[in-house]
Amino acid sequence: MPKGGDAPRTATPVPRGQLVDHVLRRMADDIVLGRLAPGLHLDEQAMAARYQVSRTPVREALKLLVASGLADYRPNRGSVVRQLDSAELDLMFEAIAELESACARHAALRLTQAERQQLLQAHAEGRQAMQAHDMEAYDRANQRLHQIILEGAHNPYLIDTTRTLRSRVMAFRRGQFTRLDRLVQSYEEHSRLVEALLAHDALAAHREMRSHLLSARHATSLLAPQWRDEPALP
Question: Taking the model in full, what pTM does it have?
Answer without folding.
Answer: 0.84
